[in-house]
Amino acid sequence: MRKSVVIPLIFGIAGVAVLIGLGKWQVDRLAWKEGVLADIAAHIAAPPVGLPDAAEPEADRYLPVEVTGQIGDTALRVLVSQKQVGAGYRVISVLDTGARRVLLDRGFIKVSADIPAPPEGMVTVQGNLHWPDERLSSTPENDVAGNIWFARDIAQMADVLDTEPVLVVARRLSVPEVGVSPLPVDTSGIPNDHLSYAITWFSLAAIWAAMSGVFIWRMRQAERGKT
After folding, report:
1. Is 81 inside any structural domain?
2. Please, which residues bridge with residue 101 across strands?
3. Are residues 169 and 205 in the same domain?
4. Is 196:23 a contact under the CB 8 Å cutoff?
5. Which of 130, 132, 171 is nearest to 45 (CA)?
6. Domain span at residue 27?
7. What is the pTM of this model?
8. For FRET with 29, which of 20, 78, 83, 181 sits at 20 to 30 Å CA-CA?
9. How is this protein situated with respect to the membrane (predicted)?
Protein backbone atom coordinates (compact mmCIF):
# COMPACT_ATOMS: atom_id res chain seq x y z
CA MET A 1 0.00 0.00 0.00
CA ARG A 2 1.34 3.41 -0.98
CA LYS A 3 2.17 5.72 1.91
CA SER A 4 0.03 8.49 0.41
CA VAL A 5 -3.06 6.33 0.90
CA VAL A 6 -2.37 5.40 4.53
CA ILE A 7 -3.41 8.69 6.15
CA PRO A 8 -6.74 9.05 4.22
CA LEU A 9 -7.45 5.38 4.95
CA ILE A 10 -6.83 5.88 8.68
CA PHE A 11 -9.08 8.94 8.72
CA GLY A 12 -11.74 7.03 6.79
CA ILE A 13 -11.68 4.03 9.12
CA ALA A 14 -11.57 6.22 12.25
CA GLY A 15 -14.48 8.38 11.05
CA VAL A 16 -16.63 5.37 10.20
CA ALA A 17 -15.82 3.76 13.57
CA VAL A 18 -16.80 6.91 15.48
CA LEU A 19 -20.05 7.35 13.56
CA ILE A 20 -21.01 3.70 13.96
CA GLY A 21 -20.23 3.99 17.67
CA LEU A 22 -22.57 6.98 17.96
CA GLY A 23 -25.27 5.06 16.11
CA LYS A 24 -24.83 2.06 18.41
CA TRP A 25 -25.09 4.39 21.43
CA GLN A 26 -28.40 5.73 20.12
CA VAL A 27 -29.68 2.17 19.62
CA ASP A 28 -28.83 1.44 23.26
CA ARG A 29 -30.57 4.68 24.31
CA LEU A 30 -33.60 3.64 22.26
CA ALA A 31 -33.91 0.38 24.18
CA TRP A 32 -33.53 2.25 27.47
CA LYS A 33 -36.15 4.87 26.49
CA GLU A 34 -38.63 2.23 25.36
CA GLY A 35 -38.26 0.58 28.76
CA VAL A 36 -38.89 3.90 30.52
CA LEU A 37 -41.97 4.58 28.39
CA ALA A 38 -43.32 1.08 29.09
CA ASP A 39 -42.92 1.67 32.83
CA ILE A 40 -44.67 5.05 32.58
CA ALA A 41 -47.52 3.55 30.53
CA ALA A 42 -47.99 0.80 33.11
CA HIS A 43 -47.98 3.39 35.89
CA ILE A 44 -50.57 5.53 34.08
CA ALA A 45 -52.91 2.54 33.60
CA ALA A 46 -52.59 1.24 37.18
CA PRO A 47 -55.69 1.11 39.42
CA PRO A 48 -56.57 4.59 40.73
CA VAL A 49 -55.96 5.66 44.32
CA GLY A 50 -57.20 8.54 46.40
CA LEU A 51 -55.80 12.02 46.02
CA PRO A 52 -52.56 12.28 48.06
CA ASP A 53 -52.62 14.67 51.01
CA ALA A 54 -49.55 16.48 49.68
CA ALA A 55 -49.04 15.69 45.99
CA GLU A 56 -45.48 16.17 44.72
CA PRO A 57 -44.64 16.88 41.05
CA GLU A 58 -41.79 14.36 40.90
CA ALA A 59 -43.11 11.57 43.11
CA ASP A 60 -46.74 11.71 41.96
CA ARG A 61 -46.45 12.58 38.25
CA TYR A 62 -48.89 10.40 36.25
CA LEU A 63 -50.35 8.94 39.46
CA PRO A 64 -53.78 7.42 38.70
CA VAL A 65 -56.38 8.88 41.07
CA GLU A 66 -60.11 8.79 41.70
CA VAL A 67 -61.61 11.98 43.11
CA THR A 68 -65.21 12.88 43.85
CA GLY A 69 -66.29 16.51 43.87
CA GLN A 70 -68.27 19.24 42.19
CA ILE A 71 -66.98 20.84 38.99
CA GLY A 72 -66.96 24.63 39.12
CA ASP A 73 -68.70 26.80 36.54
CA THR A 74 -65.61 28.91 35.76
CA ALA A 75 -63.30 27.38 33.15
CA LEU A 76 -59.99 28.28 31.55
CA ARG A 77 -59.25 27.58 27.88
CA VAL A 78 -55.84 26.24 26.85
CA LEU A 79 -55.14 26.36 23.11
CA VAL A 80 -54.21 22.96 21.65
CA SER A 81 -54.40 21.12 18.34
CA GLN A 82 -55.46 17.55 17.62
CA LYS A 83 -54.68 15.47 14.55
CA GLN A 84 -57.67 14.95 12.26
CA VAL A 85 -59.64 17.48 14.33
CA GLY A 86 -57.74 20.75 14.27
CA ALA A 87 -57.49 23.58 16.76
CA GLY A 88 -59.38 23.59 20.01
CA TYR A 89 -59.09 24.15 23.73
CA ARG A 90 -58.44 22.10 26.80
CA VAL A 91 -61.03 23.04 29.40
CA ILE A 92 -59.62 23.53 32.91
CA SER A 93 -62.05 23.91 35.81
CA VAL A 94 -62.12 23.61 39.59
CA LEU A 95 -62.88 20.26 41.18
CA ASP A 96 -64.16 20.99 44.70
CA THR A 97 -64.24 17.95 46.98
CA GLY A 98 -65.61 19.95 49.89
CA ALA A 99 -62.32 19.73 51.73
CA ARG A 100 -60.01 20.58 48.85
CA ARG A 101 -60.02 22.47 45.56
CA VAL A 102 -57.83 21.16 42.72
CA LEU A 103 -57.58 21.79 38.99
CA LEU A 104 -59.44 19.48 36.61
CA ASP A 105 -58.54 19.08 32.94
CA ARG A 106 -61.97 18.12 31.61
CA GLY A 107 -60.86 17.53 28.02
CA PHE A 108 -61.08 18.98 24.52
CA ILE A 109 -63.58 21.23 22.78
CA LYS A 110 -63.38 22.64 19.25
CA VAL A 111 -62.06 26.17 18.94
CA SER A 112 -65.44 27.39 17.65
CA ALA A 113 -67.44 25.80 20.48
CA ASP A 114 -68.60 27.41 23.69
CA ILE A 115 -67.47 25.88 26.97
CA PRO A 116 -70.20 23.43 28.01
CA ALA A 117 -71.71 23.77 31.47
CA PRO A 118 -70.30 21.10 33.79
CA PRO A 119 -72.46 18.25 35.14
CA GLU A 120 -74.49 19.24 38.17
CA GLY A 121 -73.87 17.76 41.59
CA MET A 122 -71.08 15.48 42.71
CA VAL A 123 -69.05 13.78 40.01
CA THR A 124 -66.44 11.03 40.39
CA VAL A 125 -63.40 11.61 38.20
CA GLN A 126 -60.85 8.98 37.30
CA GLY A 127 -57.67 10.39 35.84
CA ASN A 128 -54.01 11.09 36.44
CA LEU A 129 -52.06 13.77 38.24
CA HIS A 130 -49.89 15.79 35.93
CA TRP A 131 -47.56 18.77 36.02
CA PRO A 132 -47.05 19.38 32.27
CA ASP A 133 -43.98 21.26 31.09
CA GLU A 134 -45.42 22.90 27.98
CA ARG A 135 -43.78 26.31 27.99
CA LEU A 136 -41.00 26.91 25.45
CA SER A 137 -39.03 30.07 24.78
CA SER A 138 -41.39 30.76 21.86
CA THR A 139 -44.60 30.20 23.84
CA PRO A 140 -46.63 33.42 24.20
CA GLU A 141 -47.67 34.64 27.61
CA ASN A 142 -51.12 33.52 28.68
CA ASP A 143 -53.92 35.98 27.95
CA VAL A 144 -55.59 35.72 31.34
CA ALA A 145 -57.99 38.60 30.69
CA GLY A 146 -59.09 37.12 27.35
CA ASN A 147 -59.11 33.60 28.79
CA ILE A 148 -56.79 32.17 26.15
CA TRP A 149 -53.95 30.16 27.65
CA PHE A 150 -51.02 28.86 25.63
CA ALA A 151 -49.65 26.46 28.26
CA ARG A 152 -50.98 24.69 31.31
CA ASP A 153 -49.01 26.75 33.82
CA ILE A 154 -50.22 25.03 36.99
CA ALA A 155 -49.14 27.67 39.50
CA GLN A 156 -50.73 30.50 37.52
CA MET A 157 -53.94 28.55 36.92
CA ALA A 158 -54.18 27.63 40.58
CA ASP A 159 -53.78 31.29 41.50
CA VAL A 160 -56.53 32.39 39.08
CA LEU A 161 -59.00 29.67 40.13
CA ASP A 162 -57.97 29.66 43.82
CA THR A 163 -57.01 25.99 44.00
CA GLU A 164 -54.10 23.86 45.06
CA PRO A 165 -51.38 23.65 42.36
CA VAL A 166 -52.51 20.12 41.53
CA LEU A 167 -53.97 19.07 38.17
CA VAL A 168 -56.13 16.00 37.60
CA VAL A 169 -56.35 15.12 33.90
CA ALA A 170 -59.68 13.34 33.44
CA ARG A 171 -59.79 9.90 31.85
CA ARG A 172 -63.44 9.26 32.56
CA LEU A 173 -66.25 10.83 34.57
CA SER A 174 -69.14 9.13 36.33
CA VAL A 175 -71.38 11.56 34.43
CA PRO A 176 -69.97 11.93 30.90
CA GLU A 177 -69.89 15.48 29.55
CA VAL A 178 -71.62 16.27 26.29
CA GLY A 179 -69.36 18.29 24.00
CA VAL A 180 -66.13 17.62 25.92
CA SER A 181 -63.78 14.82 24.83
CA PRO A 182 -61.32 13.68 27.51
CA LEU A 183 -57.65 13.98 26.61
CA PRO A 184 -56.15 11.56 29.12
CA VAL A 185 -52.49 11.41 30.02
CA ASP A 186 -50.40 9.09 27.86
CA THR A 187 -46.79 8.73 26.71
CA SER A 188 -47.28 10.31 23.26
CA GLY A 189 -45.97 13.66 24.48
CA ILE A 190 -42.71 12.20 25.76
CA PRO A 191 -40.06 12.54 23.03
CA ASN A 192 -38.31 9.41 21.79
CA ASP A 193 -36.12 10.37 18.83
CA HIS A 194 -33.32 7.87 19.36
CA LEU A 195 -34.23 5.71 16.34
CA SER A 196 -34.05 8.68 13.96
CA TYR A 197 -30.75 9.73 15.57
CA ALA A 198 -29.35 6.20 15.13
CA ILE A 199 -30.40 6.13 11.46
CA THR A 200 -28.73 9.52 10.98
CA TRP A 201 -25.41 8.37 12.48
CA PHE A 202 -25.38 5.09 10.52
CA SER A 203 -26.21 6.99 7.32
CA LEU A 204 -23.35 9.39 7.97
CA ALA A 205 -21.04 6.41 8.54
CA ALA A 206 -22.03 5.01 5.13
CA ILE A 207 -21.52 8.40 3.48
CA TRP A 208 -18.15 8.85 5.19
CA ALA A 209 -17.03 5.40 4.02
CA ALA A 210 -18.16 6.11 0.46
CA MET A 211 -16.51 9.53 0.37
CA SER A 212 -13.28 8.11 1.82
CA GLY A 213 -13.30 5.34 -0.79
CA VAL A 214 -13.85 7.82 -3.63
CA PHE A 215 -11.11 10.10 -2.29
CA ILE A 216 -8.60 7.26 -2.08
CA TRP A 217 -9.60 5.98 -5.54
CA ARG A 218 -9.05 9.45 -7.03
CA MET A 219 -5.66 9.70 -5.33
CA ARG A 220 -4.64 6.36 -6.83
CA GLN A 221 -5.87 7.41 -10.26
CA ALA A 222 -3.94 10.67 -10.04
CA GLU A 223 -0.77 8.82 -9.03
CA ARG A 224 -1.15 6.37 -11.90
CA GLY A 225 -1.55 9.31 -14.28
CA LYS A 226 1.82 10.66 -13.22
CA THR A 227 3.62 7.37 -13.85
Report:
1. yes
2. 96
3. no
4. no
5. 171
6. 3-39+192-226
7. 0.77
8. 83
9. Multi-pass membrane protein
Cα gap 155→167, rounded to integer Å: 10
pLDDT digits (tens, 9 = 90+) for 4-33: 678 888 889 999 999 999 999 999 999 999
Question: Quick one: 145 and 86 in the same domain?
Answer: yes
Q: Give the H or E element holding residue 92.
A: strand 86-96
CATH number at residue 80: 2.40.50
String of DSSP letters for 162-190 = T--S-EEEEEEESSPPTT-B-----STTS
Count: domains in the chain: 2
Sign of CA dihedral 136, 142, 148, 154: positive
pLDDT given at position 3: 63
> Do 21 and 92 share a domain, yes or no?
no
d(CA 19, CA 194): 14
Residues 6+ apart with CB under 8 A from 87: 79, 80, 81, 110, 111
Residues 196 and 169 in one domain: no
Distance CA 97, CA 95 (A): 6
**What amino acid is encoded at 17 in this protein?**
A
Does the pLDDT value for residue 83 go beyond 80?
no
